Amino acid sequence: MAVVTLSRADRALQRAAEDAQRSRRSWAVSVWLGRLCLLVVLIGGWELAADQHLLDPTFTSKPSAIARAWWQLAASGSLWHHTQYTLTEFAVGFALGALLGVVAACLLTLSDLPYRVLEPYLLALYGIPKLALGPLIVLWFGVGLLPKIVLAAMMTFFLVYMNTVVGIRSTSGDMVNVMRVMGATRWDLYRRLVLPHALPYTLTALRLTIPIAIVGAILGEFLGATGGLGYLIYEQVTFLAVDKMMAAIATLAAIVLVFRLLLLPLERWVNRHDKAIGGNG
Amino acid sequence: MEALAHREHVLERAVDEHRRRGRRDFWTLYLSRLALLLVFLLAWQVLSGVLLDPYFFSRPSLIWDQVVLLVQSGRFADNVLLTVEEAFFGYLLGAATATVAAAVLGLLPRAYAIVEPFLLAVYSIPSVAIGPLLIVWLGIGINSKVVLAAYFVFFVVFMNGVSGVRSVPRGWIDVARVMGAGRGQLVTKIILRGAAPHLMTGLRTSVPQAVIGAIVGEFISSQRGIGFLISDASARYNTAGVFAAISILSLLVLVMAILLNGLSRLGARRTG
Amino acid sequence: MARVTANGRGDAAPRAAVVELVSVYKAFVAGGTRQAKLALEDVSLSVPRGEFWSIIGPSGCGKSTILNLIAGLSAPTDGTVLYDGRVVRGVNTDVGYVTQDDNLLPWRTLQANVELALELRGVPAAQRAERSRELIGRVGLSGFERHYPAELSGGMRKRASIIRTLIYETPVILMDEPFGPLDAQTRLVLQDDLLRLWERSRRTILFVTHDLVEAIALSDRVVVMSAAPGRIKRVYDVGIPRPRDVFHIHGAPGFSLVYDRLWADISDEIAVSRRRRAGDAVEAPEAVES
Fold it and tell me: Testing the interface with A: which of C94, C98, C104, C120 to mutate, by most A Cβ within 10 A?
């Protein structure tokens, strides 16, 4: 007896689904159109304004010139040469800072007294603008890779340390008690409760420190270097080569973006158990 | 009667125990902290010239001499004031533009969705990297530092502001609508008001960023300011001078943090 | 039907006590003050092996404090806490603890959560899986083994948290308002589950609740505590025959008699604590219970 008439309820459901899809689609279309328009207006407007000398091309350059400069730098191999410097400084400093940050957080939370003794000093060190230490670091470590690595590591260390401590300290006291009653040792507590709980906090810190670790490396390059994207940018000031500066800046932004995108799947995997809570995390 | 006496006894014991532990904690804590600081400074002072190369590490007494020298020669006030000025105007510029941008884009979700990738791209530019560009555009005077400081401040305030606008519960808006609030009232009385705590966080945490922006600008190119003091001393291999300038800067940041803490505690009751 | 005894030691405990509190006092110093507050005053209890006891009383009467003392998570200010005849010193790993929040580890699947205690005790994986599967099945959670807590309903999480404690077969289980945050229907179903699980193994349970009906439906005895400082006001022998039907417990013989007497006691205490709270609301309204 399958009469092919939709009940009113079915029809309502269908209409709701269609409406939702339509509004989603129209939203997506308008957003993407808007983005496209904005891109065209920005790039085209810049280009035109520079051509018509509404903007002084010596100072603002223009998109086509920047693209050309980028291509020349890339073709001559100098872009890759400088990128290698910056990447090495960043990668080594970031890894070092992150590792030290996590280890320090674990050690200092093991027992209460050392933590409370050291806390004000760590906060004071945290309060010192680390970038301001740049010249001192250069004075100490010269103009090679080392001072940049140290700067990148310092920029990474504190945030990773702070966030990991917050993570460790936010472990539920109830759960600690439950596990102690179950017979858990201190090592059990760290391995099975405290560290897994703190991991998302650490990962958030890692994501946030990627750009600032690169900032540390670049400042180091400004203060004295023989290579690196920061050095490349700094060098152009005397030549007023805005196109090359912009090309190098764009490359830096791309590096930051790539690293953040690389961390995303890791974060998603660590937080995989949260999927029922909502996909926007 | 006896039960009551026993109760008193138990309470006394708890207070005693608490007091004893509290006192012990207090002394171990503060004495250890103080001892650590003294040992550190003393070791630095004594070991400098023995284990530590004074050329690289200087020593506390020399650093103190440098600070005194800076203050007496009048260079202290001159340079500190310039950096504070750069940071102040940079903060105003960055915070104001970021607040307006966050309010507008927070209220217009479609517009926000459109500009989001552009913002992400700009956000990915390491803040320091645009320093030299600003020098080219605005010269080595105060303007380039103000704008760099503003750039350091902008994203912190903007991100917090947007998340503030988005955090306003749908229920508040519905309630206000049912009460007959117009669009303007909705924006001013509910949405911006509800976003205030988040925005305040951004406005507070970005203050040191303004100082850092100014300092970094001075590193890149300048003839005055705390950043100049640091890089100049460093270029002359005057380690004590570098430490002295960094100490002054740290003190400046600390004073600002304390002031801000007081202010935000005052404001916390009103912004919720 | 409902016998009333003056205190827990009452009518010459027929079976050996597994948990015993002898004239226990517990005082706390509230944070930031120099004032001590008495949470427990002269509490004596003697819980025989294999019985189901409930503790009820107004909030802040130190019910949870009693559980923490038995678990060895805190020490009495005066008096003695005995477990199996020995004085409890340090964490007591012979008891299982079910807290009010389910406290499941969000990054572990249901099965991994249930197996946690066995894992800590070094039980091989195959054996762990066998035992956890059996228990998971018994509370009707089969098929959800690989789900994370965030994907389970409140009632399911609660079941998981209970079998997580049952799995390592401690002689005594402490439950601190385990069904507190659940809705009324889910509560009933879980009470039924708990009774079935308990009737199979007959371990000793100390169950803190503020729900009268729940206490009567589940327990052999109900301990009524007075408002702060917590004292034992009376211990009721419920006496409703087992197996019980929690869904129709109101109709069980003797129910209304116990209920009325319990309610009379409790309502007195609630009135006292409310008066007192109104009195020193300005001073320190926070309960001293830890």
Answer: C120
Chain-centroid distance, C-alpha A97? 15
Q: Min CA distance, B265 vs chain C (Å)?
A: 20
B7 within a domain of the structure (yes/no): yes
Q: What is the pLDDT of residue A11?
A: 84
Closest CA to A133 of B239, B46, B43, B129: B239
User: Nearest chain B Cα to A37, which residue?
Assistant: B114
Shortest Cα–Cα distance, B179 to chain A (Å): 28
Distances (CA, A) of A117 to A85, A154, B25, C54: 39, 21, 11, 45
pLDDT for the residue numbered C157:
92
CB contact under 8 A, A131 and B124: no
A219, B219: Cβ pair inside 8 Å? Answer: yes
Q: Is the pLDDT of residue B266 over 90?
A: no
Instruction: Give CA angle at B146 (B140, B150), nearest 5°.
Output: 140
- Rg of the Cα atoms in chain C: 19
In-domain check, residue C155:
no
Q: Tell me if B54 is assigned to some domain.
A: no
For chain C, the domain total comes to: 1
Number of domains in chain B: 2
Phi and psi torsions of C20, nearest 5°: -140, 130
* Least confident among B146-150, C77-81, C199-203: C199-203
C203 lies in a domain? no
Distance CA B127, CA C262 (A): 69
Could you tell me the residue range of the domain that residue B221 belongs to? 60-271
Residue C153 in contact with partner chain A when CB distance is under 8 A: no
Q: Average pLDDT in the A4-32 region?
A: 84
Please, which residues 141-160 of chain A have a Cβ atom closer than 8 Å to chain C?
none
Separation CA A14–CA A18 (nearest Å): 6
Cβ pair A237:B221 closer than 8 A: yes
Q: Name the average pLDDT for chain B.
A: 86
A273 contacts chain C (CB < 8 A):
yes
Structural domain contains residue C238: yes
Residue B187 lies in a domain: yes
Are the beta carbons of C36 and B7 separated by less than 8 Å? no
- pLDDT per residue as tens digits for the range A57-110: 888 889 999 999 999 999 999 999 999 999 999 999 999 999 999 999 998 888
Rounded to a whole number of angstroms, the distance from the CA of A107 to the nearest CA of chain C is: 23
How near does any CA of chain B get to the CA of A272, in Å? 24
CA-based nearest residue in chain A for residue B229: A135
- C184 domain-assigned: no
Q: Report yes or no on B52 lying in a domain.
A: no
pLDDT at A3: 55
Any idea what the CATH number is for the domain that residue C232 is in? Answer: 3.40.50.300
